[in-house]
Amino acid sequence: MHDMMRLTMAVWWSLALVWLVTSQAVAEPASDQPARRITVKGYGPNEEVAKKLGLKAAAEKLQEELHRQQLDHWHPSEKYIKERLLVDAGHPGEKVADPQAETWIYEVKIPDAETLTRLDQQAQRQERAEARLSLALHTAAGLALALVVLIGYLRADQWTRSRYTTWLRLAGASALVAIVAGWVWLR
After folding, report:
1. Which of 25, 31, 137, 175 could form a Cys-Cys staple with 111, CB 3.0–4.6 A?
2. Structural domain for 172, as ranges
3. How much is the CA Rg of the chain, to the nearest whole Å?
4. Which residues on adjacent β-strands are paired with residue 105?
5. Same domain, 59 and 80
6. In this structure, are residues 41 and 54 in contact, taking their beta carbons and an 8 Å threshold?
């Protein structure tokens, strides 16, 4: 009983250690001086929707700039744009033909190429860290399952006083093959 408890604790502490080693703090650096500014507009049935669509338009313009510079890993969030790239809170725009439609205008700072490259590299590092963490967790889970199968085999063989050893070995080997196939499938 104590051996099983120690084994369980060892597996859980190993998983915790893998998580600690592979996790990274995610912090977005402050942008440097912007290279230029653009104006974007959001149109909607009310002011709130127009503001949200304006932020979405700003994200699309920034994504176009990233694509133009062949930077494919960082995707600016509306929150990041709102907190770091807006010049001010924006203002209502001109009225459109529909009297129930609203317009909201934002002035957005486009970071320089060096800052965009740094943000893209940081996003690429984060993607690699997440892929490594996923691989480490799948591997740890596969090893833990293999260990459970081995312990189960030994316990079952002990309980049956070795009467079904051949059948238990066959079942254990089948379970191990299933674990390996599952691990390969999840990769």
Report:
1. 31
2. 2-25+126-186
3. 28
4. 41, 91
5. yes
6. yes
